[in-house]
Amino acid sequence: MQKSFKSTILKVSLFFLFLAIISMLVQQTLYPQYIDAQGVLHETLWVPIGAFSFMLSIFIFVIYSLLSIINFIIKRQTR
Fold first, then answer.
1. Is 38 helix (H, G, I), strand (E, B) or coil?
2. Are 53 and 17 in contact (CB under 8 A)?
3. pLDDT tens, 6-63?
4. What pLDDT score does 41 carry?
5. Which residue, 59, 56, 60, 65, is CA-closest to 23?
6. N or C: which end of the chain has fewer CB within 10 A?
7. CB 14: neighbour CB atoms within 10 A?
8. Do the beta carbons of residue 46 and residue 16 sit within 8 Å?
9. Using 50, 70 and 90 to split pLDDT, how confident is the model at 2?
10. Where are the domains of the chain?
11. Cβ atoms < 10 Å from Cβ of 40
12. Gap between the Cα atoms of 56 and 43, Å rounded
């Protein structure tokens, strides 16, 4: 596996993790969540964006880890 492809995967994963952290911080500081009189939770679009970005970053990082492990095993077997 080429190092540039693997580093790109890692950069994409870190980007989505950064996006998740930023969106959750924006949600907490600018748009607080509240429950109205009927018991309905009100939240903005920042929560699903943050959750989706976090899950996507974890998924991409798992792919990066699996590629690194497979690459290590292949290099070890070819010695």
1. coil
2. yes
3. 889 999 999 999 999 999 999 888 888 888 999 998 888 888 999 999 999 999 999 9
4. 85
5. 56
6. C
7. 14
8. no
9. low
10. 1-53
11. 8
12. 21
62's tokens: 């798992």
Cβ(71)–Cβ(2) under 8 Å? no
Count the neighbouring beta carbons within 10 Å of the beta carbon of residue 2: 8
Neighbours of 50 (CB within 10 A): 20
Residues in the chain, how many?
79
**CA angle (69, 59, 31) in 5-degree steps:** 145
pTM of the model: 0.80
Query: How do the residues of the chain divide into helix, strand and coil, expressed in percent and rounded to 5?
Result: 75, 5, 20
Q: List Cβ neighbours of 54 (8 Å cut-off, separation of 6 or more).
A: 16, 17, 20
